[in-house]
Predict the 3D structure of the following.
Amino acid sequence: QGGIGKTDDNLQAWRASAAGLPALARCTHILLDPASPAGQRTLYAALYRDGVYKSSDDGHTWVKKTDGIDPRNPFAWRLVLAPDGTLYVVMVKNRLKGQEYPGMIYQSTNGAETWEQVPLPEGVDFPNDLTVDPSGRLYLACWPHLEGDQNIGGGAYASEDGGRPWTRVFDPGMHVYTVSVDAKNPSILYIGTF
């Protein structure tokens, strides 16, 4: 089983924060909206195989928010909140046998009430992570797939306009796990590969 836990005492004790979550809530990422008020924080959770959930009461209760997300791929992996308030979710590739479906990125401009698909770079079917810098520029980390004897569709991409369009910034044959932006100098990037 999985779930979400909460602590109010400097990590000394944890309690379940799972009202409204499915029993097997495989949570891969939690995002806090810093603009929400203390004591009534808005939180978003990416649940692997269950999509996105939202809490508007400091994590006490959760509500599923998947309007617009294709049910053939519920593999929510990472959440990103851009400076303009746009929320993004990365859905990794569904690799279950007989249910294979490409990964996707969605955006919401209304607090996860509805989602709209963001086009992926050409040839990409496995987005893995999304990063945003202080200006709102997006960086997408991708895993490649084998086509013939060549890895394609991996690497890293950048977009100045919410993924419309993307520009390749790193080798598409590489498995890129994440892109990180230097906090003091956003023109310096770091990537993790394997």
